[in-house]
Amino acid sequence: RLKRLLEQETAHQAKREKESNKRIAKLKEELTKLKSFALMVVDEQQRLTEQLNQQSQKIQELTTSAEQAHEKLAFAEAKVQEEEQRASRLEAELQAQSSKISQNQEAMMAKLTNEDSQNRQLRLKLTALSRQIDELEETNKSLRKAEEELQDLRDKINKGECGNTTLMTEVEELRKRLLEMEGKDEELIKMEDQCRELNRKLEKEASQSKNLKGEVDKLNKRIMELEKLEDAFNKSKQECYSLKCNLEREKMLTKQLSHELDGLKARIGELEAIESKLEKTEFTLKEDLTKLKSLTVMLVDERKTMGEKIKQTEEKLQVATSQLQVEQNKVMSVTEKLIEESKKALKSKSDAEEKVSSVTKERDELKNKLKAEEEKGSDLVSKVNILRKRLQSLEAVEKEFLKNKLKESTKSSTSLQQENNKIKELSQEVERLKQKLKEMKAIEDDLMKTEDEFESLERRYVNERDRAKLLSEELEAVKMEVARYKLTEKAESNQEQRLFKKLKEEEAKSSHLSREVDALKEKIHEYMATEDLICHLRGDHTVLQKKLNFRPSLNGRRISDLQVFSKEVQTDPADNEPPDYKTLVPLERTVINGQLYEDSDNEDKDNNEEEQT
């Protein structure tokens, strides 16, 4: 039955899909028309917005240029004031410095003239002193010669070679001359001191003259710098004059820019009013378009969802049947495996219990043996300790015996043999005890191995028990899933009935939506007709206005010059504007026979009532 119902539904859905495809094609054509109309409106809006943006950018550029010009003017005026102040300061400084320099020059020139006259006098004195020094040197030479002659004469007198009175008189004359010459020598020494003082004074005056020359050079450099400053001051005056001219020009430009700004602001106000009207018309058109788009999208989405739901239900039915068969096979195989594994688990349990019982018995026996052997080992250890003590005492005795061996060799031979025999017996007992210890260690190793085997068997037993529990849980889960699948089959049958009901309801909705779409199409056609009529009337109006503008009046003027004085409405600036649908109510009523707005209001009321239901 389900298959027959599904086949009938698929055929019915195919028919409906064909009808819906036809309707969708028609709706797509109408949507393309609406989109073209909307694109036209959007293009006009974009063009106007671009014009507005361009004009706003121009205004911003002009404002920025005006602000920059004002800033430049203020900056230039401040610079001019600063430069005028600097010029006045420099003039005052130049006058003060020029007066100071002239005074310094006069003082320096007077000093130089005085120093030149002093230098000339000193040079004359130096020449006279040099002459006197030459004369004194000549007299010194003659005095030395006279002294040599006197000494020769004295030698001769002392020898008694000549004793004439003439010689004595000559000697006295020579003495007088010597005294005169000594007085002249003192004068020469004084003259030399004066010459040294004069040389010092000359050196001081030469250094002072060098310093004065350096100061004169500095003053000349300062004068050159002042001349350069005067040239710079003249240049700055010329620059100030040029800046003043530029300021006046920029003031004129700013006035012109301010007038242009006012005109642009007025144009912007007009453009903003036009833009507001365009935005209103665009908003109304967008609302109509969004309604149409939402309706078409809702219809398409609902049909797609219904088709997808039906396909999903069919796929779910097929998947559920296949899963039922697969899981029934799984349940059969799992039950067989569980039976086999339960048998194996029972066998392994019995074997493990037998092994555990045998291992526990062996373990108890081995523990008893271990206890007995441990007791024996403790006894043997005590005996070994006693024997060690005896050996130590025997070693001490042997040492004493070796000391007394030389004295009592004959007596101790028998006792030594006895002690040697005792030592051999003790060594044999120690070896036996070692062997017993080795055996005990081997027994302990065997016990450890048996304990490990017992623990591994216990682990295996626990693992087998866990596996059996898991298998039993899986069996229960499989049983629960089988019960769930049975319940899901019942629920799916109920869901199919619900889906049929939903399909019928959605068909009713789609028919209702198609009616609404038809009503909206009629509205759009009416809007298009009104728009064509408005464009035609606007073209006629522009043609008539051009004819009126070019028609001459009585005075030879055109009527366009006298439009300001007429009472008619000027429609030239609104040629580029789109139609304002709210202001064209009478035209629409004439075109639509007076039923457009009433029908739209009634349809809005019907839509609101349907949404409330």
From TrEMBL:
Pfam families found in the cross-reference section: CortBP2
Taxonomic superkingdom: Eukaryota
Keywords: Coiled coil
Protein name (Swiss-Prot/TrEMBL): FIL1L protein
Bias (Acidic residues): 598-613
Keyword flag Coiled coil: yes
Region (Disordered): 1-22, 349-374, 592-613
Residue stretches making up the Cortactin-binding protein-2 N-terminal domain: 1-47
Stored InterPro entries: Cortactin-Actin_Reg (IPR050719), Cortactin-binding_p2_N (IPR019131)
